[in-house]
């Protein structure tokens, strides 16, 4: 699955639609998830992660740009031609309570995609459902129960089983482990790794939990105000963040021990996506902002150790990657 220069603007609905500007949720993002690859997508709430995830599995059509899957541009495929490709692209959400039908048994919920996409007998569907429940760590006796009889963690396992039953090539996990207890989270992360190794599944792992991303992703993309500001191998991004925003995220994450800055919240707030500033999206919060950042959007530039960063400091100022961070940044967060 490959996204190329994807833009999403939400046009206002209703009474004031002519007087209100659209929300520019995603602004020119290119990102791919390969076979057996797990890509982490991080960034503060509202930066466009879920919107991008929904575009990736064609739950949403982008305003412009292309989404390729299995050699086809799927962003504008009519539903009839999208249908055979749907099983290959699945998404798991944070709140499985809203995505599971409360009036359906868990067994039926998990097997439902089979009914829609494959011709199987009821007995075969049930057998596959059992197999899936087992895979995600639930038991056969759970098949005939209803979602409300389960804990949040168990419901999340059910939602995962439902997403996996069609053996997708790419799964977008949108905060899928954010509301579950630590041991469930660890089991789910271990399962994702297994599915990658054994079945070659690819994952776009969206999370504000950087520890989970670090654990599960081989590559990370950092989003800010609708744009990807940094990408790279997980180890490099965490050890030597090249973008001041990535640095701010890492040092403000709960439990962050790097440079003793754990527990702090990021300084300031991102600007409105209705009216993003010209130039670098991070300019209003960046402790190292330069004149140029106010007018010119920095182009993605390769970083030592892998990946790319969109920051003028990379070409104009002191290089951040692989070096100790400047005092201003260390003190800033
Ligand atoms: N259906 C929608 N209609 C209008 N605005 C939306 C819609 N979905 C998301 N947005 C807006 O788009 C921006 C990005 O949202 P989202 O993709 O949910 O961010 P994230 O998942 O990173 O928190 C936010 O400003 C959000 O309010
Ligand atoms: Mg979201």
Automatic annotation (TrEMBL):
Give the matching SMART domains: AAA
* InterPro entries attached to this UniProt entry: AAA+_ATPase, ABC_transp_ATP-bind, ABC_transporter-like_ATP-bd, ABC_transporter-like_CS, Oligopep_ABC_C, P-loop_NTPase
Checking SUPFAM superfamilies in the record gives:
P-loop containing nucleoside triphosphate hydrolases (SSF52540)
Q: Which GO terms describe its molecular function?
A: ATP binding
One of this protein's Pfam families, by short name?
ABC_tran
Domain named ABC transporter is located at 1-250
UniProt keywords, alphabetically: ATP-binding, Nucleotide-binding, Transport
Q: Where are the annotated segments for Disordered?
A: 253-276
Gene3D superfamilies, per database record: P-loop containing nucleotide triphosphate hydrolases (3.40.50.300)
Family stated for the protein in its record: Belongs to the ABC transporter superfamily.
Which PANTHER family has this protein been placed in? D,D-DIPEPTIDE TRANSPORT ATP-BINDING PROTEIN DDPF-RELATED (PTHR43776:SF7), TRANSPORT ATP-BINDING PROTEIN (PTHR43776)
Instruction: Fetch the NCBIfam families from UniProt.
Output: oligo_HPY
> What name does the UniProt record give this protein?
Dipeptide ABC transporter ATP-binding protein
């Amino acid at each position: 699955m490959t996204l190329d220069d994807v833009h999403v603007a939400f046009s206002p609905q209703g009474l004031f639609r002519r007087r209100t500007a659209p929300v520019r949720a995603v602004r020119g993002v290119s990102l791919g998830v390969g076979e057996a690859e797990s890509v982490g997508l991080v960034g503060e709430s509202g930066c466009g992660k879920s919107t991008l995830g929904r575009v990736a599995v064609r739950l949403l059509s982008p305003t412009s740009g292309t989404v390729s899957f299995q050699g086809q541009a799927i962003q504008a495929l009519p539903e009839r031609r999208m249908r055979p490709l749907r099983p290959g692209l699945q998404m798991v959400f944070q709140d499985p309570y809203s995505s599971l039908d409360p009036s359906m048994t868990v067994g039926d919920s998990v097997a439902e995609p089979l009914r829609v996409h494959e011709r199987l007998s009821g007995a075969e569907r049930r057998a596959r459902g059992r197999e899936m429940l087992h895979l995600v760590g639930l038991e056969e006796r759970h098949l005939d129960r209803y979602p409300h009889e389960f804990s949040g963690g168990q419901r999340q396992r059910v939602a995962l089983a439902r997403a996996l039953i069609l053996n997708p090539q790419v799964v977008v996990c949108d905060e899928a482990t954010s509301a579950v207890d630590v041991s469930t989270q660890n089991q789910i992360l271990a399962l994702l790794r297994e599915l990658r190794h054994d079945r070659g599944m690819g994952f776009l792992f969206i999370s504000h939990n950087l520890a989970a991303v670090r654990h599960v992703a081989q590559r990370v993309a950092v989003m800010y105000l609708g744009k990807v500001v940094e990408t790279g191998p997980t180890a490099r991004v965490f050890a030597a963040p090249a973008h001041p925003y990535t640095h701010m995220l890492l040092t403000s994450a709960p439990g962050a021990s790097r440079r003793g800055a754990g527990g702090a919240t990021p300084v300031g707030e991102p600007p409105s996506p209705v009216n993003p500033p010209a130039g670098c999206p991070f300019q209003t919060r960046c402790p190292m902002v330069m004149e140029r950042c106010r007018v010119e959007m920095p182009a993605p530039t390769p970083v030592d150790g892998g990946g790319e960063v969109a920051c003028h400091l990379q070409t104009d100022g002191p290089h951040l990657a692989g070096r100790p961070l400047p005092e201003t940044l260390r003190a800033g967060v």
